[in-house]
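Batch job 17 of 40 flagged for manual review because the log was empty.
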Amino acid sequence: PIIRQLQSIPRTKVHQRFLADAQIQYPLKAADVLVIPYADITNSGSLLLALSFGCCVVAPRLGSIPMIVTSGINAILYDPEDANGLKNALIAAMTMTAAQREIIGANALAQAKAMRWENLAEALFTKNQGKGDGAGIAISVTTGAWSDPKRSSMT
């Protein structure tokens, strides 16, 4: 139902398909808003890519997303537990002026330029400390590689 509603908005394109690496730049350059409606996520490469294109992003407050972006500053975040959260976030995005979206997009691009693997690794480690079965995650900051510590000698 919400897809049909979005498609009925003039000048709105809804893409529900895989895009090859070489194609992803076109919708990201053209987008006023990029929606990433995850139900469950730890980290989002799509979010980081969208930020690097200066996109205004609508995303849930899940996983590392709220550690990377701030609602109203460089993204629009919503509560995934709220049945109307995504809908309200979309309405907020669609009722923004072009100037407001440009400010959020510029802030998103600035955030992407400021991001470093070290910062993301530290934020994830801090957020996950003391949670789960104690296995944790191992992060190689120099390569950006993520691995399961049970299968790796990385510390």
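Reviewer: the log was empty due to a logging misconfiguration, but the result itself is present. The chain has a mean pLDDT of 77. Unflagging and moving on to job 18.
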